[in-house]
Description:
About 75% of the residues lie in helices and about 0% in strands. It is an all-alpha fold. It has one domain.
Amino acid sequence: MEIVFNVIVVLHFIGLASLLGGFLVQMSSAQKGVNPAMLHGALTQLVTGLLMMGILEAGLLEGETANVTKLSVKLGITLIITILAFVGRRRPLPQVGFWATIGALTLVNVILAVFWH
């Protein structure tokens, strides 16, 4: 199960790269908005995060336990990001508010993942 978990972690990082990369690529653009990379990255983060949480909660990894509070906060933020990405994709450009909020919440999730033990 450890190999499966590690593959899911890699996919989770790919989702993060897509989400954050979709945000960063528009930093100098006048027409900021939600692009497909951001939406697909958000969905990948959501699905892989739920899978990792389920594996940890089920006790399928020896010696590993889930910090349910941390994961619940991160899940809530990811749900908000995903909803904003879905709504933003349907709105005309520019979408600076959606773009900036998604980028900021993504950075908050990264900071929580690294510093909250």
